[in-house]
Every structure is written in structure tokens, then in C-alpha cells.
Design a protein that fits this description.
By secondary structure, the chain is mainly alpha-helical. It has one domain (5-181). It contains 3 helices and no strands. The N and C termini lie far apart (80 Å). The model has no long low-confidence stretch (mean pLDDT 82).
């Protein structure tokens, strides 16, 4: 009727595997973000020094405006690319974490269902109603989890499209200002 020691050990091993997978995913995403930030910082420092040299070479205010305008557009485009890369890393990590968690929840629900079935076979007469309530509760919990998961995916897709639209608008605005200044 009750789970035995080998079933608990199997469940603990499964949980440890999931924790390792979650940890590895978070570590990989952190590593990618750190590499992205280092590359962006290196590029910013190098370009900043070059930009300072260009600005110092301006001979009059019109020349200064032209140099400033020329420097603005690539910076905005690089920021947009950085934002897209950072979002891609975060989105991929989130998808991997969701996949691991969904697998764990599915496996846990399967095990609970098996335990309920085993308990039902050895339950005393008249407990069918209680067993039915347990199965119904498990089904309701699964339905609720699926609904929350679906809503989270939709929110992620909406956020992704909003970020893409905001980046496009910002890039277009910078391009428009650069053309007007030139």
C-alpha cells in the first residue's frame, strides 16, 4: 500500500537529477550573460576611446554635431543587439528550466497516481469515494498547473513581441534623429 524504500530512493535520485539540471542551466545562462557583458564592456571602452578622439578633433560646432550624430546610431544599434542577445539567453534558460520542471511535475503526478491506485486496491470497503476524491484532486491540480503554464508561456510570448517592437521603435527613432542631424 505504501511506497517502499527503493521507490523513495528512486524519487530522491530523480529529484537530485532535476536539481543538477536546473543548476547547470542557471550556471550556463549566467556564464553566457557574463561573456556577453564582458564583450559589451570591452567594446564600449574601445569605442568610447575612439569616440573621444573623434570629438576632440572637431573644429567647429557643426563638425561636433556631425560627429555626435555619426556616433549615436551605431551605439543604439549595438544596444538593441545586446538587448536581443540578453533576452535570447534568458528566454532559452527559462525554456530549459520549464522543461525540467514540467518533467518533474509529470513524473511526480504519475507516481502519486500509482500510489493512489495501489492504495485503492488495499483500501477497506466504502473508501471508494475518498479514493475518487484523491484522483479528482490530482486531476484538478494537473489542470490548474497546465493552465498556469499555458498562461506563463503566453505572457512570455507577449513580452517577447513587445520587446522586439520596442527595440524596433527605438532603433527607428535613432535612425530618424541621425538622418535629421546630418
Amino acid at each position: 500500500m505504501y511506497p517502499n524504500q527503493s521507490q523513495f530512493l528512486e524519487m530522491q535520485k530523480s529529484n537530485m537529477d532535476a536539481i543538477q539540471a536546473l543548476g547547470a542551466t542557471v550556471f550556463q545562462a549566467t556564464e553566457k550573460l557574463a561573456q556577453l557583458n564582458l564583450a559589451a564592456t570591452r567594446s564600449l571602452l574601445e569605442e568610447g576611446a575612439g569616440a573621444a578622439q573623434h570629438l576632440l578633433s572637431a573644429k567647429d560646432p557643426q563638425d561636433l554635431v556631425a560627429i555626435t550624430s555619426a556616433l549615436t546610431q551605431p551605439g543604439a544599434e549595438k544596444f538593441a543587439a545586446y538587448s536581443r542577445n540578453a533576452y535570447t539567453i534568458a528566454s532559452a534558460a527559462s525554456a530549459e528550466l520549464s522543461k525540467v520542471l514540467e518533467a518533474q511535475v509529470a513524473e511526480g503526478n504519475r507516481k502519486i497516481g500509482e500510489w493512489i491506485d495501489v492504495a485503492a486496491k488495499s483500501a477497506p470497503a466504502g473508501s471508494e469515494h475518498a479514493i475518487g476524491m484523491l484522483k479528482s484532486s490530482l486531476s484538478a491540480a494537473n489542470t490548474a498547473f497546465d493552465a498556469v503554464n499555458k498562461a506563463a508561456r503566453q505572457a512570455g510570448e507577449t513580452a517577447e513581441s513587445n520587446i522586439a517592437a520596442a527595440v524596433a521603435v527605438a532603433t527607428d527613432a535613432v535612425k530618424g534623429k541621425t538622418k535629421k542631424a546630418a
